[in-house]
Amino acid sequence: MTEKQHITIKGVKEGLLFLLDDQCEFSAILDELQYKLEKTHQQVLTGPLIHIHVKLGSRQASEEEKEQIRAVIRQRGNLLVQSIDSDKQENADNKGASPELKMLTGVIRSGQTLQHDGNLLLMGDVNPGGTLYCTGDIYVLGTLRGVAHAGSGGRTDVIIAASLMRPTQLRIADVISRPPDEWITGDAAMEFAYLADGQMQIDKISQLFRLRKDPIVFKGV
User: Fold this and answer.
1) Which of 45, 60, 91, 204 is 20 to 30 A distant from 74 in Cα terms?
2) Is the pTM of this model over 0.90?
């Protein structure tokens, strides 16, 4: 193929990254993808199971188009498509738009630190001496006894929620929580911390709707 290349293949820790040009026709992308898999990149793509992550740039592909991409890649039996994502488009009128949620299962033990760019759901405990850092929200389906820092990149519209709130320290953006003893309410209900007028507040998770007023849409009734 002598014309401009519209697909770049890079090796990453998780496998291979396919970077697709978002300015060319979708049919041209499929043709080039087929060509690279069959002709020019056979050596790179042979061997054991390889995880593939596809980046579409700013292209907003339909589910049908994503399935077409998967179908072409699946022709090589050792390639497993893990994700097909478009870049998150920043909207000045929607600065608080939440990134995708990352879910993890386990226990953050003393001396361990977990950092994540986005929202985090931890199904497990955070022990004393354990630390969570996230640029987005933090949800702990367990007991939070360590340190949790949400909005570590400066966002103030994030929350920290836990099934049982017993932290040594909470922090949202640059605001640090009150003394830990003040967070022990004796209530068994799941609670969350948030900022109001620059001050850390705590409330039951059932009251989150007052902060996040996204409509609930029921389908297929």
Assistant:
1) 60
2) no
